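[Discussion] Sanity-checking designs against the backbone

I'm trying to build intuition for which residues belong where. Below is a structure token string of 281 positions. I'd appreciate it if someone posts a full sequence so I can compare it with mine line by line.
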């Protein structure tokens, strides 16, 4: 069964790794700085060429950080699926980056057919779309978003566990597990937790946005809030998804077999000690 309490506490079990993940999330949000007002202000002082160069560097840094953040979530999911509910180390950054890029590529490929279909239907029917057809397109869009949000976490954990990009598209196994209660209930809990923990941050963001005293620092504070929310929320819900995957698939992780292996090593030693003892006369 999913240990929700352990999942909710997970981000706070290692403060060093929490801080590292927060910094990565903060860099991943650098793209938020690239708004119209900021670019115009920079253009006045540094010129268009410097702004374009800075924007390119900023976007590359954001992409690199987003890949690292995504790769870390893949590592969290893999650990949870194997029975280890812990904040994993930040070693092997090349592997984190590679897994994160695969994660991003996977979600783009998942979303692309849906976006294309809805876009084409909306474009072709925009001029002559009646109320019934509009309702069908809207319903299809809502259903597609729901299915993407529901199926994707399971596909992500399956990829994390199998460590193969093709696992994203192993639809036979993914759909086999997706409609089991052992996945549906944790998914609902993760959704409710995500909404519940996001509400205070949204309210705080609105307060910051409408506060005259904080107006010069609104963008910075919002970026900090977003990074903090992602650092708290992402490991917890990813752990829930990983544990749910463990339940629906019945996989056995390394943590389950660690104790028997230790006993298997200890047993021969005990026999050797017993063999050395001389029998009593």
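Best answer:
Here's mine. Compare freely.
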């Amino acid at each position: 069964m999913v240990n929700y309490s352990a999942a909710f506490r997970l981000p706070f079990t290692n403060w060093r790794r929490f801080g590292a993940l927060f910094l990565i999330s903060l860099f991943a949000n650098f793209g938020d700085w690239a708004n119209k007002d900021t670019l115009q202000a920079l253009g006045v002082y540094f010129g268009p060429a410097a702004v374009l160069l800075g924007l390119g560097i900023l976007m590359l840094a954001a992409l690199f950080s987003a890949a690292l953040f995504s790769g870390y979530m893949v590592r969290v999911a893999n650990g949870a699926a194997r029975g280890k509910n812990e904040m994993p180390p930040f070693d092997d950054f090349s592997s984190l980056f590679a897994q994160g890029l695969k994660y991003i590529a996977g979600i783009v490929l998942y979303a692309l057919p849906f976006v294309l279909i809805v876009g084409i239907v909306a474009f072709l029917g925009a001029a002559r779309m009646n109320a019934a057809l509009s309702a069908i397109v809207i319903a299809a869009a809502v259903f597609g978003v729901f299915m993407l949000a529901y199926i994707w976490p399971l596909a992500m954990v399956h990829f994390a566990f199998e460590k193969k990009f093709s696992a994203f598209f192993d639809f036979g196994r993914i759909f086999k597990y997706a409609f089991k209660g052992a996945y549906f209930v944790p998914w609902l809990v993760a959704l409710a937790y995500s909404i519940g923990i996001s509400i205070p941050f949204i309210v705080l963001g609105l307060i910051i946005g409408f506060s005259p005293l904080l107006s010069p620092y609104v963008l910075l504070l919002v970026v900090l809030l977003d990074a903090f929310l992602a650092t708290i929320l992402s490991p917890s819900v990813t752990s829930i998804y990983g544990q749910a995957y463990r339940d629906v698939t019945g996989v056995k992780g390394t943590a389950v077999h660690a104790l028997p292996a230790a006993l298997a090593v200890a047993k021969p030693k005990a026999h050797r000690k017993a063999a050395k003892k001389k029998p009593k006369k």
